[in-house]
Design goal:
By secondary structure, this protein is α+β, with helices and mostly antiparallel strands. The protein has 5 domains: 100 residues, Rossmann fold (3-Layer(aba) Sandwich), CATH 3.40.50; 70 residues, Dna Ligase, domain 1; 247 residues, ATP-grasp fold, B domain (D-amino Acid Aminotransferase, Chain A, domain 1, 2-Layer Sandwich), CATH 3.30.470.20; 120 residues, Glycoprotein, Type 4 Pilin, CATH 3.30.700; 67 residues, OB fold (Dihydrolipoamide Acetyltransferase, E2P) (Beta Barrel), CATH 2.40.50. It is 25% helix and 33% strand. It contains 17 helices and 39 strands. The strands form 9 sheets. Strands 14-13-10-11-12-15-22-20 form an 8-stranded antiparallel β-sheet, sandwiched between helices. A hairpin with a 2-residue loop joins strand 30 and strand 31. Helix 4 packs antiparallel against helix 5. The longest helix has 18 residues. The chain is globular and about 85 Å long. 46% of the residues are buried.
Length: 665
């Protein structure tokens, strides 16, 4: 076994590798960018080396600096994690040339599987089923369009060197092909340095099923069963589970054998994932092979009881696989939810900001834990625009899928993040949909269930308002002493004391009255249909953050967190972000600027789709931005004429920056 390894990555995977290495008695070296100087993975390792600026191209993609750090610290091996350089054969070869063990497959295997077109030719030779498509080297746009017409719409354009949903577009009509191809190529060149694409038939109602494989340097290769990763948005995974619902033992063995054949065809060593598109009738086709550990590997660990990172270290050190195929067993069911900084209601635009609050359900670490949290950030940390938007992975395990689903719901309910948009509530709704609950799975599940997933109300106003009141009362009570003059409860000898709360919820202002009666009881009067009708309120607060509310005859438990003027409320049936308005402090404020084209997040301006003097219509695409490794199209907020472009293509722009000026037509 190695004495010291360098982890050429960041975030939760770097933390995970460091923890496993420590358990095995292996020292670790972290590398970090300027943006990650205080990151959790830096503190998780025994040593740390700065390698450059915050952008990946200035740090985590600078493999020469990483090799220099390995040499300077005496590391014997490099673990690439996933993303960045994990599937870069040039980096893997450079590690070998420097006398470092690369904790991954041989460079030739990475190269063979890294180009989707080449890998499909290899798989065809190995007898692995393929989706009909075009995988040729000729990239003439006219030829690609003719191939799409030959295959028949809908088709899928995919970056040949891609992964993670980047450089991928579904095209349903011939007239949309040219624009989709251009966007794919831009995203591919920015993400992978290669704009080659392939065209495939877009399988209707497909399931995304992948097989975890592992090979060693002694010629052995096994599969550790399957994962279903069908729930996706923008071709990126949202929920993953193992085993795949409805998978028969015969089909599992068939897919496992195909995955092992794919791995052996390229002399594979280490952890890898063979991904398949599966029809609803069970037929499956090779899609691609990821020559690295996958983000969703914890669900495989949960059902097998194996530590896949430990397997990686042992195989890279020349040891044989820990288990033979016939020794591998699976037990129970596991589900992983990717918690991301993004706004599902805003088209899943990535979000940035500080995690003012990050509270997790009770959890354990690694392998078969009932609840597991893998995260590289914590409370007080910032989510920057430079890296992936994932905050954490929540993994649950149960004896049955039903138990795992119940535990997932409870764990998402108890996940409280404040400071930026997240997809936690969306994940909870996803898991509760009829499609997911009954395992009616395909990659269009989110679109099919959109009515249940988007535009759903948060907590009822009465519950949200009562929670804010409870939080305020608990904070004030904490400042009181035995001195009766320190009391802030508005006590009166006769009659009721009234107090007004000015609350903004979802952009709507509400005036709420709290009445404290001479007998000590409380009541709440809400605006709207409940005006003049008081709701009896009783509050028991364990702390300013934990409350039990009695609203008339109903009892609810809530958690509250105050950041500035905002109070985040989390209850059993949802959450709400309430602004407690100080009307004196905000006197005189008002007015807004409408109709401006602004950046919805910080990022790089990729393209303008209109020029000064152009007449545009509301909803027309006007600009393309790249943030967190994905492209985002920004549309006109109203009809008008483009008066001026305020940035140049390639500029970095801040959140809310005005990109161009529109004038009335």
């Amino acid at each position: 076994m190695f004495k010291k390894i360098l982890i050429a990555n960041r975030g939760e995977i770097a933390c995970r590798v460091a923890a496993t290495a420590r358990r095995l008695g292996v020292k670790t070296v972290a590398v970090y960018s300027d943006a990650d100087a205080r990151a959790r993975h830096v503190h998780a390792c025994d040593e740390a080396v700065r390698i450059g600026g915050p952008a990946p191209r200035d740090s985590y993609l600078q493999w020469q600096r990483i090799l220099e750090a390995a040499k300077a610290t005496g590391a014997e091996a490099v673990h690439p994690g996933y993303g960045f350089l994990s599937e870069n054969e040039e980096f893997a070869q450079a590690c070998a040339d420097a006398g470092l063990a690369f904790i991954g497959p041989p460079p030739a295997a990475i190269q063979a599987m890294g180009l989707k077109a080449e890998s499909k030719r290899l798989m065809e030779q190995a007898g692995v089923p393929l989706v009909p498509g075009y995988h040729g080297a000729d990239q003439d746009p006219a030829l690609l369009r003719r191939e799409a017409q030959r295959i028949g719409y809908p088709v899928l354009i995919k970056a040949s060197a891609g992964g993670g949903g980047k450089g991928m577009r579904a095209v349903h009509a011939d007239e949309d092909f040219e624009a989709a191809l251009a966007s794919c190529k831009r995203e591919a060149i920015n993400s992978f340095g290669d704009d080659a694409v392939l065209i495939e038939r877009y399988v209707q109602r497909p399931r995304h099923i992948e097989i975890q494989v592992f090979g060693d340097s002694h010629g052995e290769c096994v599969y550790l069963f399957e994962r279903d990763c069908s729930v996706q948005r923008r071709h990126q995974k949202v929920l993953e589970e193992a085993p795949a619902p409805g998978m028969t033992a015969e089909r599992r063995a068939e897919m496992g054998a195909a995955a092992v054949a794919a791995a052996k065809a390229v002399g594979y060593q280490g952890a890898g994932t063979v991904e398949f598109i599966a029809e609803q009738d069970g037929r499956f086709y090779f899609m691609e092979m990821n020559t690295r550990l996958q983000v969703e590997h914890p669900v495989t660990e949960a059902i097998t009881g194996q530590d896949l990172v430990e397997w990686q270290l042992r195989v890279a050190a020349g040891q044989p696989l820990p288990l033979k195929q016939h020794e591998l067993r699976m037990h129970g069911h596991a589900i992983e939810a990717r918690i991301c900084a993004e706004n599902p209601e805003g088209g899943f635009l990535p979000a940035t900001g500080t995690l003012s609050v990050a509270r997790w359900p009770a959890h354990e670490a690694f392998r078969r834990a009932a609840v597991r949290i893998d995260s590289g950030v914590g409370e007080g940390d910032a989510i920057s625009p430079f890296y992936d938007s994932m905050i954490a992975k929540l993994i649950v395990w149960g004896e049955t899928r039903e138990q795992a689903l119940a535990l997932l719901d409870a764990s998402l309910r108890d996940t409280h993040i404040v400071g930026l948009h997240t997809n936690v509530a969306f994940l909870r709704r996803c898991a509760a949909t009829a499609s997911f609950a009954h395992a009616d799975l395909d990659t269009a599940l989110i679109e099919r269930e959109k009515d249940a997933l988007f535009g759903q109300p948060g907590l009822p106003l009465a519950e949200a308002a009562a929670a804010v009141v409870a939080h305020t009362l608990a904070e004030e009570s904490a400042t009181e002493s035995a001195d009766p003059w320190s009391r802030r409860d508005g006590w009166r000898l006769f009659g009721a004391a009234q107090r007004r709360f000015e609350l903004d919820v979802d952009g709507v202002h509400h005036q709420v009255l709290l009445s404290r009666h001479h007998h000590g009881g409380l009541s709440l009067t809400l605006p709207g249909g409940a005006a003049g009708e008081a709701i009896a309120l009783a509050v028991r607060s364990a702390s300013p953050e934990r409350h039990e509310l009695h609203l008339n005859e109903r009892r609810v438990a809530v958690s509250t967190y105050k950041v500035g003027e905002q109070v985040a409320v989390f209850g059993a049936h949802g959450s709400a972000l309430v602004t407690e308005v100080d009307v004196i402090a905000h006197a005189g404020e008002g007015g807004s600027e409408g109709g401006r084209l602004t950046a919805p997040m910080p990022g790089k301006l990729v393209a303008f789709l209109a020029q000064a003097g152009d007449t545009v219509a509301k909803g027309q695409p006007l600009a393309v931005m790249e943030a967190m490794k994905m492209e985002h199209t920004i549309t006109a907020p109203r009809d008008g004429v483009v008066a001026e472009l305020l940035f140049a293509v390639g500029d970095q722009v801040g959140d809310g920056a005005e990109l161009l000026r529109l004038q009335a037509a």
